[in-house]
């Protein structure tokens, strides 16, 4: 039975016609981003979190080029071909073997505070993290990105996550396992999660909170100037 997707027509219109409003930077935010860039530019172990379609992979790639650090994508480790999830212990074992003395790690796997004590190896990876960057963009910005990216991948056959592909059958017949649905249901859960992580690691990890694409661009430009 096809699951009816609420507001799909309106979403498609917005995808074609809407340009999301991005707020300008205040002097206070600009100073914050400059200070954050200085911290990140000297770090050797970075982690990037954010809702699906927030731009984690793109940010990872940009930082990797600037800082010359190895890149690790959690989704590629966690997802087997055919959208089969790997066991948590196996995922952590592979991840630990992939991480050296320096890395940029993106993905939300095992980022819930309750997983820190459940899996000792996960806590060890978190303890070694120096900087955490949270992409906290407005809901509609990310939701529209999710739709745009999903439709692009379906149309072009572009793979993701260890060769897996988004398809019309997944979108229409299994919508609860689609990326737009994950954004719809998961975006609002991140603030509480990040606040708890910051409370736990406030003395160990430097947290960077990016609230718009403009802030991210300014942040990256600042790092580029420092690293050059």
TrEMBL record:
<feature type="signal peptide">
    <location>
        <begin position="1"/>
        <end position="24"/>
    </location>
</feature>
<dbReference type="GO" id="GO:0016301">
    <property type="term" value="F:kinase activity"/>
</dbReference>
<dbReference type="InterPro" id="IPR027417">
    <property type="entry name" value="P-loop_NTPase"/>
</dbReference>
<keyword id="KW-0732">Signal</keyword>
<protein>
    <submittedName>
        <fullName>Adenylate kinase family enzyme</fullName>
    </submittedName>
</protein>
<dbReference type="InterPro" id="IPR052922">
    <property type="entry name" value="Cytidylate_Kinase-2"/>
</dbReference>
<keyword id="KW-0808">Transferase</keyword>
<keyword id="KW-0418">Kinase</keyword>
């Amino acid at each position: 039975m096809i699951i009816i997707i609420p507001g799909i027509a309106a979403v498609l219109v917005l995808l074609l016609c809407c340009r999301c409003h991005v707020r300008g930077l205040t002097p206070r935010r600009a100073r914050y981003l400059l200070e954050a860039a200085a911290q990140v530019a000297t770090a050797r172990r970075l982690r990037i979190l954010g809702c699906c379609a927030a731009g984690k992979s793109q940010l990872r790639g940009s930082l990797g080029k600037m800082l010359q650090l190895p890149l690790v994508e959690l989704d590629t480790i966690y997802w087997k071909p055919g959208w089969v999830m790997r066991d948590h212990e196996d995922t952590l074992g592979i991840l630990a073997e992939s991480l050296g003395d320096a890395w940029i790690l993106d993905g939300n796997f095992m980022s819930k505070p309750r997983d820190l004590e459940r899996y000792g190896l996960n806590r060890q990876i978190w303890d070694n993290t120096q900087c955490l960057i949270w992409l906290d963009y407005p809901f509609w910005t990310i939701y529209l990105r999710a739709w745009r990216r999903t439709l692009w991948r379906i149309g072009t056959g572009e793979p993701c996550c260890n060769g897996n592909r988004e398809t019309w059958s997944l979108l229409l017949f299994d919508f609860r396992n689609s990326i737009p649905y994950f954004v719809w249901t998961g975006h609002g859960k991140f603030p509480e999660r990040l606040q708890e992580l910051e409370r736990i690691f406030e003395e160990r990890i430097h947290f960077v909170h990016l609230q718009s694409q403009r802030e991210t661009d300014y942040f990256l430009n600042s790092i580029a100037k420092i690293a050059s």
